[in-house]
Amino acid sequence: MSVTAQAQPIVDHRSLYRLPWSLPDNAIAWLEPTAKCNLACFGCYRENDPRGHKTLEQIASDLDVFQRYRTVDGISIAGGDPLVHPQTTEIVRMVAERGLKPIINTNGLALTEELLAELVSAGVAAFTFHIDSKQNRPGWKTSDEIELCKLRQHYAEMVARVGHGNVSCSFNATVYEDTLRFVPDVIAWARKHMDIVSTVVFIAFRAGAVGGDFDYQVNGRPVDFAVMPYATEDLTKHELQSTDIVTTIRERYPDFMPSAYLNGTERPDTMKWLLTGYLGEGGKVYGYVGPRSMELTQTVHHLRTGRYLAYTTPKTLAMGRPMLLLAAVDKALRPVARRYLKAMALHPWRLRRKLRLQSVMIIQPADIYPDGSQNMCDGCPDITVWNGQLVWSCRLEEPEKFGGFVQMIPR
Ligand code: SF4
After folding, report:
1. Distance CA 345, CA 349 (A)
2. What was the pLDDT predicted at 52?
3. Distance from the alpha carbon of residue 392 to the mean position of ligand 1, in angstroms
4. What confidence tier does 86 reach under pLDDT thresholds 50, 70, 90?
5. Is the CB of 379 under 6 A from ligand 1?
6. Taking the CB of residue 42, how many other CB atoms lie within 10 A of it?
């Protein structure tokens, strides 16, 4: 009898906590107050529309749609770039007045200290800066991901200073096949700055090839997919998986261990959102939190507030020591607690520093399979509004241009 050995998965989704986010009950939603942007990033999936600002009434109406259909903790205010909207501060205030956390997703270009101070007084809870080496960014056009850490640090320090430690600061980067090798460098930089950086997010680049394996239709009508900003004539497949990014990270950090995930709509074992948390201080990481800690965090927050947690303040993230008590239920935390206690016994001066939680999120957007099915993120955390309905923000151009989502029909 022959036994075929099964390859060990890089990450087994069944050993992780499945994030409890769903279509009607999620941590976040995605508000687009403008389609205008002051950069032209290579990996962007939105068309830059200079006339694209929404009025405050339209924005209020989008927020009404979210609140009618979905329970959320935070609203990602994105675009376009939200900071080019002339009423950004007002938009942040509108979100905060509804009792939701306003989270600004920006490239940072239009951010001044004065604007930041206004946003802080309007109630901004968090910033996520999108910075990567394919943005054609003035002054940084030839910089690689390592050099761009200087710019990341500039924004992290600004948010810490002006936000007085109450505003969370995270960084996004699109990851391409040729920039994948820099991912561990960005994590190394983030680990050195755990006091001012909450999360780093890596988003695998996606593009749809025109003239390849599919015809494109909307409700049975052929459409010209080539007009989509994410269409390419280059037939190269861009299929970087979240697990490829984990493999690259493990070349530098062999023990890197995700603890929570969100599956795809078509395949339960695809990890569309893959979350890793670790505890450390002063550039030293003591280890990784386990699935039970992630489960307790989301469950307790939901029991207390009725919402799943999106973004926490730097002060909460600095509560690493009380978090070690979760070792009673999370066995992944036991070696972390032992390492930390040993380090404190040997170097008691380190006790002056707070033990902090930092996280790495890896996002794997839409996958297209040979039968034309498209594997989206289950529950879509970044869902937005089009025509009074909730739609995937990563494919918003499709209903905007064609009145519906594109079906891919194998040739
Ligand atoms: S389905 Fe698209 S918009 Fe929704 S979370 Fe995934 S990548 Fe983002």
Report:
1. 9
2. 83
3. 6
4. very high
5. no
6. 13
Which residue carries 């999106």 as its tokens?
310
Q: In one letter, which amino acid is 309? A: L
386's tokens? 């089009």
| Residue 327, both tokens | 């070792």
Q: How many structural domains does the chain have?
A: 1
pLDDT of residue 5: 57
Q: Does the CB atom of residue 394 touch ligand 1 within 6 A?
A: yes
pLDDT digits (tens, 9 = 90+) for 322-377: 999 999 999 999 999 999 999 999 999 999 999 999 999 999 999 999 999 999 99
- pLDDT, residue 227, reads 93
Q: Residue 70 falls within a domain, yes or no?
A: yes
The number of beta carbons lying within 10 Å of the beta carbon of residue 154 is 14
For 337, the enclosing helix (H) or strand (E) is helix 333-346
Q: Does 206 reside within a domain? A: yes
365 CB near ligand 1 (under 6 Å): yes
Q: Is residue 109 part of a domain?
A: yes
Q: Give the domain CATH number at 45.
A: 3.20.20
Given a cut of 60, whether residue 106 has pLDDT beyond it is yes
User: What does the pLDDT read at residue 6?
Assistant: 65
Closest CA to 35 of 24, 47, 18: 47
Integer Cα distance of 346 and 353 in angstroms:
15
Domain of residue 234: give its range: 15-320+356-410
Beta-strand (E) ranges in 282-329?
284-288
Cβ-contact 45, 130 below 8 angstroms: no
Does residue 8 lie within any of the structural domains?
A: no
Strands 374-375 and 367-368: antiparallel
Ligand 1 pocket check for 19: Cβ under 6 Å: no
Structure tokens at 267: 């395949």
Structure confidence at residue 270 (pLDDT): 96
Q: Is the CB of 377 under 6 A from ligand 1?
A: yes
State the pLDDT at residue 362: 98
**Residue whose CB lies within 8 A of the most ligand 1 atoms, among 130, 172, 380, 397, for a mutation test:** 380
* Pairwise CA distance, residues 226 & 231, whole Å: 5
